[in-house]
Amino acid sequence: MSTTLCDPLETVKSPPDAGCVLCGHSATLGQAKVVCKVPSNVRMFQHEKFTVWRCENCRSLHSHENVDLDRYYKHYPFKQHEMNFATRCAYNNRLRLLRKRDVCSSDKVLDYGCGEGLFVDFLHEKGFQNVAGYDAFAEEYSNEAVLEDQFDVIVSYDVIEHVEEPRSFFDSLVNLLAPGGLLVVGTPNAEQIDLSRWEEFSMELHQPYHRHILSEQVLMQLGRDAGLKAEYVYHRFYFDTLYPSVNTRFMEEYVRATGSVIDVVVEEPQPGVVFRSPRLLFHAFFGYFAPPRGNMMAFFRK
Fold this sequence. Notes:
25% of the residues lie in helices and 21% in strands.
């Protein structure tokens, strides 16, 4: 077995060994060829480490330990996320990609896993009249009554990797989609994550919140199994823009330079860190042209 280990940290108790919940392959953690101990990239939990292993059959990644997600989401940094210039740029990217798939302001849209509802508000500002949001971990958007409707467009960014049963979750999205509707799923791409260099992919691994990270082949298979047609796969993170510092490469380098905790993304910027680093300054202006691997956004049609 090829195993990569990080420095000794507190280890979370592991459950019994199990196979791949995505492709059904019987190989377990104990039989995996690639296993890594990864610390949490959230400041409050960075002393804890979690076991991530790759399914050799479908190339997806799994977080092994059982965790109390309520405990971790109670202190989730992105609960403090507010609309700012960088977020608007990223959301404009999202909207541009949606409009390329013929999404218009009269469509009935659901943002599933909307967090604090920033993208819902953004779409309203852009003239979308019929937009709803749902997020089980956000009090304002936790009303399940919204899930009794059907929608022309469902977007779910950075959500499917957070759930324990991705197949069931995907099927639930499809059931909410009207005939001819568009489903957009943005998520890390397990096939592009190198566990031997886990520090470079801490945002994509994002332990313990990311329970199962799908490979592109698995995501495409989920669509086929649900009777959907895959129209397009975008292989950049939607945060990539030409505006200085608003690109994924700069964001990941900045996170590493400020302690490798993702909390800094929603905290006050530290310009001194940037101006003292030629590497950060370079990526602030040119990072768009060297996008990191590890993300995908798939567009499916019902």
